[in-house]
């Protein structure tokens, strides 16, 4: 033990890497308190260790969220055994409760706070992509610092340093505190430059000190090789590559870690280098380190240059110093780019809710990095951004418990589609912008209340971010209507789709978070997605706010599992299931891209009414039908949700026997078998079967985008057998008329009257099994249609494909137990699908329907096309 102790001490004293930033030997007692926020993370743990090893530190607070990979108390217990004077104390906090209410003991008395709390990058992401989620985390911690340790130096490690530092410094200014307490830690750039120079020159890194100025992203990282005597000897032709490697050091590690994080150990080392220098200054020995701070050395408000740390923190900010001609050019480039970070992001994110960054254009040649080289004028252009691409970073927590569903944090980014219309001159505007009237049903107020059509697909493998980005870009280029917005036309207030036919540019921005994994209960998935930034808002909201996107694509990390979730949400007002899955397939698989036709076939409404019969159509929109749904909801609250795999062999047997028994029926489909089964199992008075009218009504084709669907109401005699359903469809297919509840001569079952309808069981059967769910380069673990349980109105069953080659039925029942009913399912429904996902329901009350009242209030209730037209 003694030998180890002496080894450790001698290592600390002798090793040049440590001695170069070792604390001043002038003090004999430990005196400082240091806090590491995010202390249980990849950087946090080794950084806490290194700070605990500083003999001038008397106490280290290690703070992290309660669901962190390792409990902060565990990290503290572990490090508390090191043979150094420091006491290490863990603080676990609840991310839902403001940090200011939880960090008093943790921060009070702190001299130095280091913040590596937040998401790291994944391959394909820029640091800027991390802003939205990380800025909120940083803001919570910095507000607590302002309250409990306003004199401490706050070292911002969390990315993007370039924009989080200005935002936090402005926050300090607003509170009347010294913005220079907020310091961006860019020491890793210096460490990298030193190491790369040592490799090239063969000299000891301990003798090299390359200043790195500018910022901490892409071209803003500017090593000044001419100012270090050793690096100044490197020939000029080698400098650009060395410069570039230093800029790309972070990306090099992100790519090598292949989705499992960014630099942690070298950052912990660099964070300790920074922290120890700050403490050395506080202890009375002024010490220099380049850092990103509020600055006047250039015309930029925030800039990294050499800073002297003294007793109270930042003491002096040094000018850039002499530069050679290559560096002069680079400075201009770095300044231009840093200006964008300073002006567009920092200054506007200074208080209140931290705002989403404006988009930044990538600089040609800067690999995997987005330094944001746009000018304030260009910024104006992106303000009209609309639509969407979301993606995610590494999980916030990686619970090692397999019992508790792991929480996975999502970093959602938005690819904003910039409508150039606002800036185009009026002549080109009319040529390029289009406004297409939508179908009557798409204009109905009740239909407009529908949420986006959304699926969540849990996949195994690294998230194919680059693939999704490029596919989404290509899909939108081929289908610019997806970037449009809804508006009421001036003639009859019907809804139309307005978009820029010239397409749009795409930018990536962060939105927020959703916590789900493939073992999360469906009910929780439903709660997490509903209303989140991953879900497209109901049509009425999109109509009232033209900046609401009509499509969102999000990736959600699976935490410690090698999985992630892809969430694709498309407004129901512009897409039915057929359109949705066409787009989904193009997004996820290497299929040919198609331009779907968004121009609505206006004859469709009349043809559909003719096809299903006016009475059927009226029935679906009748007050008694709506009241039945609402009363069920008010009485029973949320439905119970279950899913069962379809036994394809049994289905094949039934099909064969049906054809044998009913020679007039050429075939029966799996949909017929399942609809008949569901209607019978739950003893429905009416089972409304969703029907896709493409190729059933003349002129409505495969590639027509929009809601060319309807509900065909079947009575008990109609769904008594799969063959009876097929017979009905066949007759409709040949005559163009589906009779059932209509008053046609061969109607089988009369429509229920008002009171019957009110008290009967009305079921809905819908089919989402359009194609095999797959995601290029990944294994599909589970693909699920998303329904908000609060909003499922009737007893409902959804046919879908949970994985390629499998078919399942998802059931939502109000007062029936599907686990009991499935025993009578004639072997058609097999084992339950993912029992961990489809667990017991929680009770709920249906009063939430009242949420729609304010939305409808102020809207004239418009039901188009129900009246005979
Ligand atoms: N400035 C620089 O040169 C560098 C910065 N970074 C940045 O540092 C950050 C952290 O990276 P890693 O440690 O690799 O990530 P990590 O995911 O391993 O650790 C982050 C930790 O933050 C915690 N956390 C999340 N929300 C929190 C909250 N509200 N309060 C306290 N803790 C919270 C998480 O639970 C986790 O333990 C990233 O943003 C990364 O980009 C990384 C390398 C270099
Ligand atoms: O590159 C990243 O995302 C992490 C970082 O800032 C670095 O390693 O320099």
Automatic annotation (TrEMBL):
GO terms for cellular component: cytoplasm. It comes from Cladocopium goreaui. Belongs to the LDH/MDH superfamily. MDH type 1 family. It catalyses: (S)-malate + NAD(+) = oxaloacetate + NADH + H(+). The keyword NADP does not apply. One of its GO terms (molecular function) is L-malate dehydrogenase (NAD+) activity. This is malate dehydrogenase. It is an enzyme of class 1 (oxidoreductase). It holds the Pfam family Ldh_1_N. It comes from the Eukaryota.
């Amino acid at each position: 033990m003694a030998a180890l102790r002496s080894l450790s001490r001698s290592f600390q004293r002798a090793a040049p890497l440590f001695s170069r930033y070792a604390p001043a030997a002038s003090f004999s007692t430990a005196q400082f308190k240091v806090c590491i926020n995010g202390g249980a993370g990849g950087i946090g743990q080794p950084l806490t260790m290194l700070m605990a090893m500083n003999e001038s530190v008397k106490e280290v607070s290690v703070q992290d969220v309660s669901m962190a990979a390792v409990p902060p108390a565990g990290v503290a217990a572990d490090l508390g055994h090191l043979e150094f004077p420091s006491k290490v104390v863990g603080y676990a906090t609840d991310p839902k409760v403001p940090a200011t209410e939880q960090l008093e003991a943790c921060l009070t008395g702190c001299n130095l706070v280091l913040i590596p709390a937040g998401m790291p990058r994944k391959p394909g992401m820029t640091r800027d992509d991390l802003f939205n989620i990380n800025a909120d985390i940083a803001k919570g911690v910095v507000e607590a610092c302002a309250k409990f340790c306003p004199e401490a130096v706050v070292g911002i490690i969390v990315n993007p340093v370039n924009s989080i530092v200005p935002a936090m410094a402005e926050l300090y200014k607003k509170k009347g505190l010294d913005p220079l307490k907020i310091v961006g830690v860019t020491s890793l750039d210096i460490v990298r430059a030193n190491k790369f120079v040592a490799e090239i020159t063969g000299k000891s890194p301990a003798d090299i000190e390359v200043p790195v100025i500018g910022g901490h992203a892409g071209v803003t990282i500017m090593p000044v090789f001419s100012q270090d005597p050793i690096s100044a000897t490197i020939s000029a032709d080698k400098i650009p590559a060395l410069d570039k490697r230093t800029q790309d050091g972070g990306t090099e590690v992100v790519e090598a870690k292949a989705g499992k994080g960014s630099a942690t150990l070298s950052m912990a080392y660099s964070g300790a280098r920074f922290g120890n220098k700050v403490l050395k200054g506080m202890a009375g020995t002024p010490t220099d380190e380049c850092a990103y701070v509020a600055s006047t050395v250039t015309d930029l408000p925030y800039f990294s240059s050499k800073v002297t740390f003294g007793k109270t923190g930042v003491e002096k900010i040094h000018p850039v110093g002499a530069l050679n001609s290559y560096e002069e050019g680079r400075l201009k480039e770095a300044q231009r780019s840093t200006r964008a970070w300073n002006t567009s992001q920092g200054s506007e994110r200074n208080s209140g809710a931290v705002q989403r960054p404006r988009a930044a254009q990538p600089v040609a040649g800067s690999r995997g990095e987005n330094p944001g080289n746009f000018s304030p004028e260009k910024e104006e252009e992106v303000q009209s951004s609309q639509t969407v691409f979301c993606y995610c970073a590494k999980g916030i927590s990686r619970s090692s418990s397999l019992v508790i569903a792991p929480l996975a944090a999502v970093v959602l980014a938005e690819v904003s589609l910039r409508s150039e219309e606002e800036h185009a001159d009026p002549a080109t505007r009319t040529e390029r912008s289009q406004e297409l009237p939508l179908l009557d049903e798409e204009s109905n107020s009740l239909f407009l209340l529908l949420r986006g059509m959304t699926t969540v697909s849990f996949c195994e493998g690294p998230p194919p971010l680059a693939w999704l980005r490029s596919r989404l870009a290509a899909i939108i280029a081929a289908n610019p209507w997806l970037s449009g917005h809804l508006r009421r036309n001036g003639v009859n207030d019907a809804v139309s789709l307005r978009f820029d036919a010239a397409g749009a540019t795409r930018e990536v921005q962060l939105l927020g978070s959703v916590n789900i994994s493939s073992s999360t209960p469906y009910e929780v998935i439903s709660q997490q997605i509903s209303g989140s930034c991953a879900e497209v808002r109901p049509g009425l909201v999109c109509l009232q706010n033209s900046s609401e996107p009509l499509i969102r694509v999000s990736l959600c990390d699976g935490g410690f599992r090698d999985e992630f979730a892809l969430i694709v949400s498309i407004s129901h007002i512009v897409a039915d299931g057929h359109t949705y899955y066409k787009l989904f397939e193009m997004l996820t698989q290497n299929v040919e891209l198609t331009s779907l036709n968004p121009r609505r076939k206006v004859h469709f409404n009349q043809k559909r009414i003719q096809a299903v019969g006016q009475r059927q159509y009226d029935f679906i929109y009748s007050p008694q039908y709506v009241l039945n749904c609402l009363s069920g909801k008010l009485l029973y609250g949320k439905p119970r949700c279950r899913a069962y795999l379809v036994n394809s062999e049994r289905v094949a047997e039934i099909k064969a026997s049906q054809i044998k028994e009913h020679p007039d029926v050429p075939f029966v489909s799996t949909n017929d078998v399942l609809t008949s089964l569901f209607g019978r199992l739950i003893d429905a008075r009416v089972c409304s079967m969703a029907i896709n009218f493409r190729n059933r009504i003349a002129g409505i084709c495969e590639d027509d985008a929009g809601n060319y669907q309807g509900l065909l109401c079947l009575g008990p005699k109609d769904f008594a057998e799969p063959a009876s359903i097929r017979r009905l469809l066949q007759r409709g297919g040949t005559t163009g008329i589906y009779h059932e509840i209509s008053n046609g001569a061969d109607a089988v079952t009369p429509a229920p009257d008002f009171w019957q309808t009110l008290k009967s069981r009305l079921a809905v059967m819908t089919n989402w099994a359009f194609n095999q769910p797959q995601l290029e380069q990944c294994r599909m673990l589970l693909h699920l249609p998303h329904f908000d349980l609060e909003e499922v109105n009737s007893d409902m069953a959804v046919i879908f494909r949970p994985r390629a080659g499998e078919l399942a039925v998802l059931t939502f029942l109000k007062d029936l137990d599907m686990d009991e009913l499935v025993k009578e399912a004639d072997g058609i429904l097999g084992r339950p699908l993912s029992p961990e996902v489809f667990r017991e329901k929680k009770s709920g009350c249906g009063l939430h329907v009242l949420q729609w009242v304010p939305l409808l209030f102020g809207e004239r209730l418009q039901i188009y096309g129900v009246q005979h037209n």
